Amino acid sequence: MRFDIITIFPEIFSSVFSGGVVKKALEKGIIEVHVHDLRAFSHDRHKQVDDRPFGGGQGMVLKPEPIFAAMEEIRRCEKTPAFLLSPQGKKLDFRYAEELAKHNQIILICGRYEGVDERVIQNLITDEISIGDYILTGGEPAAFVVIDAVSRFVPRVVGKEDSVKNDSFFTGVLEFPQYTRPREFRGMKVPEVLFSGDHSKIDFWRRRKSLEKTWLSRPDLLESRTLSQEEKKILNDIKTERKGKKDEPD
Question: Domain residues for 210?
């Protein structure tokens, strides 16, 4: 899979792909990341890529000409999707990331300043992508998030692909607690069930903890998930137990 990034600050990406899973995927040729300096596509002698907005107002707006020129050179075929990274876009979640991973190439345009000329959005953009309801100084950090999230769904990027399927949100519940050595640390002990060797008990404990954690931290996820009868019973037991603890006298 190939990612193409259009930005006015290409130097930002000089180190973000220099480690971790994305770096390994790049070295193996599983994915490609190409960063394009928008100024290289400006035919203005000053390499201008932005200008004041018509109608007045604060800030600057990215001009259409260099973006159109960049797209015409970078886009491999007409069906290649292009996305503007913008707080006004569709919010990225695991389902959206999985959908994007089905493409052979995606183009990410990093927004800046007060935005991008509307003619770019109307004629070149497949969609706008947001990584959250907050404002960044530009689309560059969001581009890295998109590439990191999407690349996890590209075959062979993650060493153990089953781990992707077991990730939080993919299963609809948050991940259960994890422990490693030492068995006891400063009086804090690892749950005994994890040493039982009984895989059915361990599996039940993990499912219970996942449901409990989701109910406490992200109950909205349970509202959109169809629970099995067993899961409903586990959740009811959790609620009853926690209510009992609250009712206990100090």
Answer: 184-247
- pLDDT digit string (tens) for 167-205? 646 678 988 999 999 999 999 999 999 999 999 999 999
Annotated catalytic residue 167: yes
Q: For residue 16, is it within any domain?
A: yes
Do 13 and 105 fall within a single domain? yes
Q: Is residue 51 part of a domain?
A: yes
What token pair was written down for 105? 């190439």
114 is an active site residue: yes
Write the Ramachandran bin of 133: left for phi over 0, alpha for psi from -120 to 50, otherwise beta.
beta
83 lies in the same domain as 201: no
If asked whether residues 156 and 188 sit together in one domain, one would say: no
Residue of 37, 42, 53, 29 lying closest to 5 (CA atoms): 37
Task: Indicate left, alpha or beta for 47 from its phi (over 0: left) and psi (-120 to 50: alpha).
Answer: left
Q: Which of 87, 117, 140, 212 is catalytic?
A: 87
Per the annotation, the verdict on 152 as an active-site residue is: yes
pTM of the model: 0.85
